[in-house]
């Protein structure tokens, strides 16, 4: 093998990642996503929460009351899944659901006082989990990484498709 570190000699500790794979941003992002999802999901589960709960609570805090359809667009949670998420949040007293006074066919979801407290707690948990995830990076590198990831996401959100 040339130019790579795919596998060591017999009796070595096992395969290593080939250089060409370590240069593929798509692969690196994918592998980091798996590790990040596991860390975040397990950390939130200990607090009896899910990433979707956090996304909806954050959206309600930052943008105010909204219909389930608007929350779906804001968070990227599919509309059919949003029904269950809102049901869970209202069932826990973290959000309120009331008929829209303008259009009785839809509901408006509002963040409750309990939801605001819960969001602050989830922010603390996520801050700690992100510190773990991004431990090898300096604060400036963390900011730069977030800036670059947002630029990529914004670019691809503007140009859907392959």
What can you tell me about this protein's structure?
A hairpin with a 7-residue loop joins strand 2 (95-99) and strand 3. With 162 residues, the protein is mainly alpha-helical. It is built from seven helices and three strands; from the N terminus they run H-H-H-E-H-H-E-E-H-H. It starts with 18 loop residues before the first helix and ends with a helix. The chain has a three-stranded antiparallel β-sheet. The longest helix is centred in the N-terminal third of the chain and has 22 residues, at 25-46. It has helices spanning 19-22, 25-46, 51-63, 68-75, 79-91, 113-133, 139-158; strands at 66-67, 95-99, 107-111. The relative contact order is 0.10. Mean pLDDT is 89; it is low at 1-7.
Helix content: 55-70%
Question: First CA to last CA: what distance?
Answer: 32 Å
Please count the beta strands (DSSP E, at least 2 residues each): 3
Order of helices and strands: HHHEHHEEHH
Rg from Cα: 21 Å
How are strands sequenced across the largest beta sheet?
A: 1-3-2
In a few lines, what is going on in this structure?
This protein has 162 residues and is mainly alpha-helical. 62% of the residues lie in helices and 7% in strands.
Please supply descriptive tags for the structure shown above.
3-stranded antiparallel sheet, 7% strand, 162 residues, 3 strands, single chain, 7 helices, mainly alpha, 62% helix
């Amino acid at each position: 093998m040339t130019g790579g570190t795919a596998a060591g000699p017999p009796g070595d500790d096992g395969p290593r990642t080939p250089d060409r794979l370590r240069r593929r941003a798509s692969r690196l992002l994918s592998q980091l996503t798996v590790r990040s999802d596991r860390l975040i999901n397990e950390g939130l589960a200990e607090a009896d929460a899910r990433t979707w709960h956090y996304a909806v609570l954050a959206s309600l805090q930052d943008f105010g009351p909204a219909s389930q359809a608007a929350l779906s667009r804001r968070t990227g949670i599919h509309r059919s899944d949003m029904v269950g998420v809102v049901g869970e949040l209202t069932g826990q007293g973290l959000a309120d659901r009331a008929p829209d006074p303008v259009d009785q066919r839809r509901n408006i979801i509002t963040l409750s006082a309990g939801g605001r407290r819960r969001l602050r707690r989830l922010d603390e948990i996520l801050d700690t989990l992100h510190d773990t995830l991004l431990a090898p990076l300096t604060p400036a590198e963390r900011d730069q990484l977030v800036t670059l990831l947002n630029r990529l996401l914004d670019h691809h959100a503007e140009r859907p498709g392959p």
